[in-house]
Amino acid sequence: MAVGDAFLSAFLQVLFDRLASPELLKIAQIWRVDVELKKLKGTLLKIQAVLNDAELKQVRNNAVRIWLEDLKHLAYDVEDIVDEFEIEALRWKLEAEPQFDPTQVWSLIPFSPRVVSFRFAVLSKINKIMEKLEEIARGREDLGLKEETERNTYGISQRPATSSLVNKSRIFGREADKQKLVDLLLSNGTSEGEVCRNGDKVFIIPVAGMGGIGKTTIAQLVYNEERVIQQFELKAWVCVSEEFDLMRVTRSILESATGRSSDLKDLGQLQVSLKKVLRGKRFLIVLDNVWNENYNNWDDLMVPLRAGAQGSKVIVTTRSEAVSLMVGSIPSYNLDGLSYEDCWSLIALHAFAGKSSSAYANLEAIGKEIVKKCGGLPLVAKALGGLLRNKVLDSEWEDILNSEIWNLLDEKNDILSSLRLSYYHLPAHLKPCFAYCSIFPKGYEFDKENLVLLWMAEGFVQQKQKKQIEDIGREYFDELFSRSFFQKSCSNASSFVMHDLINDLARNVSGDISFRLNDASDIKSLCRISEKVRHASYIRSPYDGMTKFEAFYEANSLRTFLPLDVQQRYFACSLPHKVQSNLFPVLKCLRVLSLRWYNMTEFPDSISNLKHLRYLDLSHTNIVRLPESMSTLYSLQSLMLIDCYHLTGLVDNMGNLIHLRHLDTRGSFKLQKMPVGIDNLTSLQTLSSFVVGENGSSRIRDLRDMSNLQGKLCISKLENVADIVDVVEANIKNKEHLHELELAWGYHENNANSQDQGFDENVLDELRPHRNIKELTIKSYDGARFPSWMGDPLLSNLARLELIGCTKCESLPSLGLLPSLRNLVIDGMHGVKRMGHEFYGDGCSLQPFQSLETLMLDNMLELEEWSSGVEESGVREFPCLHELTIWNCPNLGRLSSRFPALTNLEIRYCEKLDSLKRLPSVGNSVDDGELPCLHQLSILGCPKLRELPDCFSSLLRLEIYKCSELSSLPRLPLLCELDLEECDGTMLRSVVDLMSLTSLHISGISNLVCLPEGMFKNLASLEELKIVDCSELMALPREVSLQLLTSLKRLLIWNCPRISSLPDGEEEELPSELETLEIMDCNNIERLQKGLCNLRNLEDLRIVNVPKVESLPEGLHNLTSLESLIIEGCPSLMSLAEMGLPAMLKRLMIRKCGNLKALPAMILHTSSLEHLEISGCLSLKSFPSSGSGLPTNVMLKEFVIKDCVNLESLPEDLYSLIYLDRLIIDRCSCLVSFPGVTNTTITNLRTMSIVQCGNLVALPHSMHKLSSLQHLRITGCPRIVSLPEGGMPMHLKTLTLLDCENLKPQFEWGLHKLMSLCHFTLGGCPGLSSFPEWLLPSTLSSLCIKKLTNLNSLSERLRNLKSLETFVVEECHRLKSLPEEGLPRFLSRLVIRNCPLLKRQCQMEIGRHWHKIAHISYIEIDNRVIQ
Question: How far apart are CA 163 and CA 237, in angstroms?
Fold first, then answer.
């Protein structure tokens, strides 16, 4: 049932307003079509009179619904004609000869050949529309449609009334919500600072959320909670519903509170009675399902309620945030969807009639996939559970799983009715905006600002008085968001999504107006798009073939052409040239055209045919120039050119685009100038960048009349300014809507003013922004001083300031008095030697930098001193600064400012910095401690630093790197993490006092022979110890055992080549709580001590590149917690774990152990083992025998064998690994065969790869029984001559057969029967001279043939591969032609490499086979993209 026509009245009203505009009527009169337009309007008015009745009846009358659909399409056609009038009139104004005055121009219009032609065409269109309109007008009588002044119902089932009763046993996942709401009800609002409106005693709690989320349920749970019942003297439950009838609601409260019916007919009497009942009593009232947004109605309802006692509460459930804001004493309590587990519990409850789902294991697996359809809505979960009830067949559940939920649920279902009600209660102007969102796929994240621009382009947003249309559009969006039609994205805070069911609703209400292609299967099943479609989107793919766009040729009324990317994959895609040259000129009604992320370099001049175009997005393309014909797109509002890195210029006559409001060229850095006439674009709201041209080609004064600029503006190449008067006229200081401003100079070599620093200073002086500016960036400024306005406190909103590359400035501006400055970056100011009073603000006793939170100084090469700017006692600078970064200031000797709130300090490469102690300050006798709030301190590359403050009382993390003069640490009572790298080893003596330390990293201390005695005696809290690159360290502490580190969980020793052993013996054992032990690149360790096996908590053990170790200690099986064991680069290792592996081991990796001859006897019997990799074990010949066979509980999922060149056989019980998912055998040149025939198969195996096994003669027997196998790769196995009997597994998706010289494809393989095969690679079969037809299953989407040196022809069956999208041909030297019938029509990517004969035939335009491949969007030949 389509329900999307309720906005027709609003649509027609806008159309009437445009038809009645004086300017349009004047044009129509001059062009002598005014009579026809008046007649058109009159007919539409007659039809509009019955719209209310039609919209009511269409719900149950299909003929009326079709009548409304026809009317809607005609209304669009009328709007197109009105647009054409306005565009043509504007063209005449802009293109008129300069010597004519306006009156002369208009007097000549009727006699212009172009106008005569235009008039004839428009009259023809009007007459056709009139015929259809008159037919529709007659149809209203046949359908019995009547004129109505008002409608009271939409004909949609009203939501059923609710009551306070609830079955708690059937509710899941709401306990936390219930508790929070109960706490709100039981709290004394006034004592917690919650203020009721207007001093009311009644506290109102709004509960908001989309339809079906469970608002009524949570209210019922709270209402019936025992603690709540005891708290209130009276309770009442009222279902308010859609129509807010004050008398009905008041009576319902009275009757619910008293338990008696009331016969009172007068509202006044009802309110008096209710007031008496409630007077002085603490009550709880639930008003369920409130839609009313009229404040007067609400205020009238509250009159008797205010008689209640203090602590009375009202719960209001609503879908509207506007209702919440209007009634709530606090912000609304917004309900989230149920968790996955709770949704499944609810479905299972209803599907299995209360029985345990475990009894239906086969259905449970399918059901848990069905849960994803719920989107967290309990009402949907309940409905789906009801659909599944009494269904016990897998096929019945799979039907539900594979169906669209909107089609599953019955028209009378509560959830569908609930959602439709939400739509019908939308104001008329929001309905087309919401319906338009049907072009977004499910899960698509959209941007608010961009969606508003799309709505504007479609004419959905109507200007009101002096408000900017963008602001109105944002209000539309916010209202839809407040009504739960949109939700915040979970993955991106700046994006929004629609719930899947809301998306379904949008598609349902938009009817055949909107269309979207979701995936490749949609394209292949699609013949054509209906000519009635106005808005279309599709999922962009890397190689969009021409076939995808063929269906669009019939949609000549299309207004929106929008490629989208659901997965937000940002890479360039290919677009067939014919789409630009042939398709777009056909779509003459386009208002929205996006080609973002397409790998296109130019756009055809035929774009001028798109005269309705209002939104054009060419962002992230390789476009070099814009066609000059774009200057005739007079309706264009938004032109998006973001990150067009190759774009060098805009359209020369861009001044004609007087309706342009948004020109976004962010990231298009090659723009050299702005176009002539840009000063005419006075409607611009967005101008991301303005490039001042050389020799006056584009002058900064062109900004003068752009008073509505908003957001961010970057003015670059300011070195090209020739006249200071131009800067004055630019009027930057009065552009009050700009929030971000960037002023950038470039190189000055060719600038006539380059020698005059004073000129640049004057330019910057006149570029003072408006006081509303929030962010300011100045780059490469060439003056010696900054203007005084930069420190003016009147810039009261400036929150971020960046001064970058201003190398000639010798002093900083006075910034300390900017009241809102929070972030300051000073980078590359090489001329500044001192930061002192002038930086803070001379002669001011106020607190400088009162709001600054982050400060970064970078590349201040000459900075020597940073002194305090405050001399008066009690005045602190930087009271809020919490992050300070100082990089690359090689001459800075000391810091003397106070930073009372600093939490993070980072200093890098300040070579002359010798102390962090604060210099004494004049007039401040009280020492309040240095950096009292500092939590993180990082000092890197400060070789002269000798002293730190005596104490960092709050420091939690300290990193010191390359500070060779620093020999001791201060008092650090709270320090948790310490990193010391390339420092003096004597600093380690200070570690003993760090009693709070949890992590210690020691790295690159070259003179460290042994750790200081007693270093660890107080480090009972230490959890991680990492010792790296200590080339002289000979041993870990022995005198004082590491066992003192009772909390140590991670011990890592890397690249300490002189350490010969780990602690061993009774007094030298490793800490017992150790969970991770890594020994890496320790060349001198000969053995691992037996005490290692006593670490019962050890979970991860890694022994890497320890070449002298010959064996692992006995008792390794005693490591009962060990889950991961990695042994790599131990060439002397000959055996391991002779007594077995730890019982909990999940991952075992043995790599590059060349002398290892045997594996543990029961290696495959470890039931918990999931990942096993054996690689580079050159002496290994076989796997141990398992004796009586493997137990059934072995969980191995991944088995990798690589570079075991002497391995002759695989485990005899390989086929018993029933849980194996992935099997990789790579470069095992002595392997001859797989184990023999067995009764078991690896039923769960999904991936098998056999690579470079030169002696392998056969593949596994009964390979066709590997029912789960999806990916099979056989490469470099020249002795394999055939596949096992039975052919290939039936569910293969990917198959690679490469460099198996003696393997010749056979019909018996049954490749043509593999209906799941998508990707097939075949190569290295020199005997193959032709391509058999049976080799190619019809399901292939990707085919690659390579190294077929004798192949001379391709199968004609290629043409029939309707799913083929990618075809790669490599090293087929004799292949010289393509199939006679050509390649598949859906093919979008063709790659030909090192095929000289074929290359010649496929040359662009001139090759003999070019016509066979010209339709393909992406063609690459010998690594060169030719299309």
Answer: 7
Q: Who's near 936: CB < 8 A, 6+ residues apart?
A: 903, 904, 905, 906, 955, 956, 957, 958
**In this model, does residue 190 exceed pLDDT 70?**
no
Residue 1365 is encoded by which pair of tokens?
Answer: 């999208």
pLDDT digits (tens, 9 = 90+) for 1133-1171: 988 877 788 889 999 999 999 999 888 877 888 888 999
pLDDT of residue 1237: 63
Bridge-partner residues for 904, per DSSP?
Answer: 883, 936
Residue 1071's SS3 state is: coil
* Whether residue 6 has pLDDT greater than 70: no
**Concatenated DSSP letters for 58-101?**
TTT-HHHHHHHHHHHHHHHHHHHHHHHHHHHHHHHHHHS-TTS-
Q: Is the pLDDT of residue 102 over 60?
A: no
Q: What is the dihedral of CA 93, 97, 102, 103, to 10 degrees?
A: -130
Q: Which residues contact 498 (CB under 8 A, 6 or more apart)?
A: 437, 440, 442, 444, 485, 486, 487, 506
Which phi and psi (to 5°) does residue 1264 adopt?
A: -65, -15
Q: Edge-to-edge, what's the strand order for the sheet holding 834-835?
A: 834-835, 865-866, 894-895
Q: Report DSSP state, residue 1326.
A: T
Segment holding 246, helix H or strand E: helix 246-258
Strand, helix or coil for residue 1002: strand
Kindly state the tokens that stand for 240: 């308010």
pLDDT for the residue numbered 154: 45
Q: Are 47 and 140 in contact (CB under 8 A)?
A: yes
DSSP assignment, residue 1400? H
**Which of 2-16, 152-166, 824-838, 1129-1143 has the highest mean predicted lDDT (pLDDT)?**
824-838
How far apart CA 100 and CA 98 sit, in angstroms, is: 5
Q: What tokens does 581 get?
A: 């040259």
- Cα–Cα distances in Å, from 1112 out to 1084, 1115, 1128, 1180? 16, 9, 13, 17
Closest CA to 968 of 992, 939, 947, 995: 947
Rounded CA gap, 1266 and 984, in Å?
62
What is the β-pairing status of strands 800-804 and 823-827?
Answer: parallel
Residue with tokens 């209710």: 274
Domain 416-517: give its CATH code: 1.10.10.10
**Bridge partners of residue 286, in order along the sequence:** 237, 315
- Rg of the chain over Cα atoms, rounded to whole angstroms, equals 39
What's domain 1157-1299's architecture?
A: Alpha-Beta Horseshoe (3.80)
* CA 885-891-897 angle, 5° bins: 50
Of the candidate CATH numbers 3.40.50.300, 3.40.50.150, 3.90.1010.10, 3.40.50.720, the domain formed by 168-334 belongs to 3.40.50.300
User: What are the tens digits of pLDDT across the range 1272-1294?
Assistant: 999 999 998 888 777 788 889 99
Provide DSSP, 861-880.
TT--EE--S--STT--S-TT
Torsion of CA 482, 484, 485, 490, to 10 degrees: 110
Is residue 969 within 8 A of residue 946, CB to CB? The reply is no
pTM of the model as a whole: 0.84
Residue in the structure block whose two tokens are 């900064």 = 700
Q: What mean pLDDT do residues 1383-1409 have?
A: 88
CB within 8 A of 354, min separation 6: which ones? none
Cα distances from 27 to residues 33, 757, 970, in angstroms, run 9, 56, 85
**What is the residue extent of each domain of the chain?**
8-142, 168-334, 340-411, 416-517, 1157-1299, 1304-1427
User: Per the structure block, which two tokens stand in for 251?
Assistant: 């009576």
| Residue 878 Ramachandran class (φ > 0 left, ψ -120 to 50 alpha, else beta) | left
